[in-house]
Specification:
It is a single chain. The chain has a domain of about 60 residues. It is built from two helices and no strands. The two termini are about 25 Å apart. About 0% of the residues are buried. It comes from Gordonia spumicola.
Length: about 90
């Protein structure tokens, strides 16, 4: 990975990740308190389920797309064969 992304880019990405995480940690209790005060438990349950169903559909779609990709010789993308570049040497 270090060859693909320079140190400065990785540091900025890590800083952005921490910032978004902290903003979410601050906003989540505020949004939850607002939602609980405005709606009933069944509505909150249904809203949560909608998010979970969308996440499940995205995960399944990702698995389907990744399994359908193949290399030029017909092997699944990312599979390794002994002796290929990047495979661990056996002594």
């Amino acid at each position: 990975m270090p060859a693909a992304y320079p140190l400065e880019a990785r540091a900025k990405g890590y800083g952005a990740m921490l910032g978004f995480g902290r903003a979410g940690a601050i906003a989540a209790p505020l949004i939850t308190a607002w939602a609980v005060a405005r709606t009933d438990a069944q509505t909150l349950y249904n809203i949560t389920n909608i998010g979970l169903i969308i996440s499940l559909m995205c995960a399944v779609a990702l698995v389907v797309v990744m399994r359908s990709r193949t290399t030029a010789d017909g092997r699944p993308q990312g599979s390794r064969v002994a002796g290929s570049v990047g495979a661990a040497a056996v002594s």
